[in-house]
Amino acid sequence: MVGRAGGIGGFRRPLHRRVVQRSIRRAGTGRAGWFGGQRFSFMRLFLDSHSARLDKKGRVSFPASFRTALERFENRSFYLRPHHLLDCIEGFSEPALEQVDASLAALDAYSEEQELLSLALLGDTSALTYDAEGRFSLAPKLQTHAHIEEALVFVGLGEKFQIWEPVRLERRKIEALALLRAQRPSLPRGPRP
Q1: CB contact set of 114 (below 8 Å; sequence gap of 6+)
Q2: Do 157 and 66 fall within a single domain?
Q3: Longest CA–CA separation in the chain, Å
Q4: Backbone angle region of 99, left / alpha / beta, with phi > 0 → left and psi within -120 to 50 → alpha
Q5: Pure H helices in the chain
Q6: How many CB atoms lie within 10 A of CB 94?
Q7: Would you list the DSSP string of 15-70?
Q8: Contact, 148 vs 169, CB < 8 A?
Q9: How far apart are CA 133 and CA 57, in angstroms?
Q10: Which residues, in sequence order, are bridge partners of residue 34?
Q11: C-beta atoms surrounding 161 within 10 Å
Q12: What is the pTM of this model?
């Protein structure tokens, strides 16, 4: 018996499997897809945590999944800055940094708020690229800010990422979990298809 779609063995694949596979293919091209009523574009996001070590020259390997996320923008460039509130380094893709700049541009020009935020968010931001082996040099100023001597952890946060000294990251995770449990924040629902 042949199904309408003529799938394997003449049977049609279930609808939910086709939808998931189509969504995964779209994500693989860096385009957004829909799954379970939620919009996603996984390949453009920085996800998961990745441990790494600085070599003797101060270089570190950029995680492969982070490189894949950047290459979806057809760009090897990324931006690092010392976090203005935490003892870590914050990283952005070019589109994410452009969003920060657009938010700053929406503030009153020459206002104290605009100037302070611009100085904090863009004043020490450095543009970087990784080499053919996926390595980049982590500036000594950034290492000092994040208290990184050798071991470090890349933490994906969606459209941005952070680089932490491992012990400080564990402390921050404990603090964050305690705050979440106390405050119980929720995410707004996104638009439905």
Answers
A1: 104, 107, 108
A2: yes
A3: 73
A4: alpha
A5: 15-28, 64-71, 94-105, 112-122, 140-145, 166-183
A6: 14
A7: HHHHHHHHHHHHHHTT--EEETTEEE-GGGSB-SEEEEE--TTSEEEPPHHHHHHH
A8: no
A9: 15
A10: 39
A11: 28
A12: 0.75
Kindly state whether residues 12 and 98 are assigned to the same domain. Answer: no
Whether residues 17 and 34 fall in one domain = yes
Q: What domain range includes position 23?
A: 8-42
Pairing of strands 77-82, 89-92: antiparallel
Tokens for 145? 């800010």
Measured CA to CA, the distance from residue 143 to residue 110 in angstroms comes to 32
Summarised one tens digit per residue, pLDDT across range 62-74 is 999 999 988 887 7
Backbone angles phi, psi at 81, to 5 degrees: -150, 150
Collect contacts of 39-45 with beta carbons under 8 A, ≥24 apart: 39/190, 39/191, 39/193, 43/68, 43/69, 43/72, 44/69, 44/72, 44/73, 44/93, 44/159, 45/69, 45/156, 45/158, 45/159
Give residue 188's pLDDT. 87
Q: Is residue 2, in this structure, part of any structural domain at all?
A: no
For residue 189, tell me if it sits in a domain: no
> pLDDT tens for residues 64-112?
999 998 888 777 899 999 999 999 999 999 989 999 999 999 999 999 9
Please state the domain count of the chain: 2
- Six-digit token string for 122: 């863009």
